[in-house]
């Protein structure tokens, strides 16, 4: 039997809903070509971002991937500036020049995301080392996909962080896919055992839909970092509902089955708590409408902005 969600769970469900609905709006808008940026949707994976960011203070900082809308929102980025960025307009969070894959909002600790797989992992290590050298208690999380664990820089980053006791939380957002290739087809090693070989503490969350568990586990790991512990490694298993890139479904692409989605669909908090979600829909829709209106009204970047922000 489900227990009634408390205020904390309601807050997390609302954030999950906001992310889901804004990405669904992106899907609706996409055929209009108003959003020309490629989009890697997080639909299905939102609870991972929501749970991780719940445990972070506004001063804590986050590095993530091109699948970053959820993180931008969960870390406190504003919706109108997100939508205008996707539209490529001057009101966007990066003046319309970064697009979906390179979202950053340093003022809320969302330091950056990148199209280059694994490239933000060492950025997280560097930022955490800087915080340590400055004696700050700022915690740093660097999020990457399971595919990123096959990149050399991931291994270099783990080795360096353990060797120098860098207080960074490595988070592997494991949807068991890299584009169309499953984890089992790609890796001869077990990702967690392999990380352990560097001497790092590892934790695995099997249910990436468990908002409360993700929040609680992350809070515990960040407390350990703040107390001067070395790096920590967390894997959260999750499931991507949509195609790797773009607004569509791809269950007919031949690399996975619709039935694979069923257990995740069942434990999806937006389905489990459908009654609560219903009561939140109108307000969430109004918030998204305002963001879209802002993007529509925002002007394209002026030609003289072409070479600014790049030096
Ligand atoms: C260095 C690099 N190699 C290859 C690519 C092409 N590429 C884009 S996404 C992707 C899959 C990455 O999978 P994963 O890290 O698990 O992230 P997910 O897309 O599942 O969130 C690949 C290989 C790239 N963008 N950068
Ligand atoms: Mg993946």
CATH superfamily: Thiamin diphosphate (ThDP)-binding fold, Pyr/PP domains
Number of domains: 1
Number of helices: 12
CATH class category? Alpha Beta
Q: Name the average pLDDT.
A: 96
Helix content: 40-55%
Q: Could you give the count of β-strands? A: 8
Distance between the termini: 57 Å
Secondary-structure element series: HHEHHEHEHEEEHHEHEHHH
Low-confidence spans: none
Residue fraction in strands? 5-15%
Oligomer: single chain
Architecture (CATH level 2) name = 3-Layer(aba) Sandwich
Short description:
42% of the residues lie in helices and 12% in strands. It has 311 residues and is of the alpha/beta class. It has a single domain (7-240, 251-299), classed as Thiamin diphosphate (ThDP)-binding fold, Pyr/PP domains (Rossmann fold).
Explain what you see.
The chain has 311 residues and is of the alpha/beta class. The chain has a single domain, classed as Thiamin diphosphate (ThDP)-binding fold, Pyr/PP domains (Rossmann fold, 3-Layer(aba) Sandwich), CATH 3.40.50.970. The protein has 12 helices and 8 strands. The protein has a 6-stranded parallel sheet. A two-stranded antiparallel ribbon has the order 5-6. Helix 6 (152-163) links the parallel strand 3 (140-145) and strand 4. Helix 1 (7-29) crosses helix 2 (46-54). The radius of gyration is 19 Å and the shape is globular. Bound molecules: thiamine diphosphate and magnesium ion (MG). The site of magnesium ion has 6 residues, from strand 5.
